[in-house]
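job 3f2a | input accepted
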Amino acid sequence: MVSKVDINNDGIIDICEFIRMMSLQQNPLITPESQLEDIFRIFDKDGSGFITRDVLRQVLLSLAHPLTEEGIDELMRKGDRRGEGRLTKSDFIKLMMNRS
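job 3f2a | predicted structure (100 res):
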């Protein structure tokens, strides 16, 4: 299973690869999109409907294998196509689904 989701073959499962791995679970009632919606709600602590770079940074840096500042910037750049400095739920889901 790990080799299927370790996209960059660095031997480490980053947050995007972890989400991908979880989405591969075989429960027909749980779609990858619904899992990502749940994850978004966890990140969107204030219920604003957006994830800012700072919120994303706090969450990602708390992981066992945190992303670097450059990695966080890259995720934001790819996901925030409007340049607003935040991700909507739709942005987040598209970003995570495109990582697969």
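job 3f2a | The chain has a mean pLDDT of 80.
job 3f2a | closed
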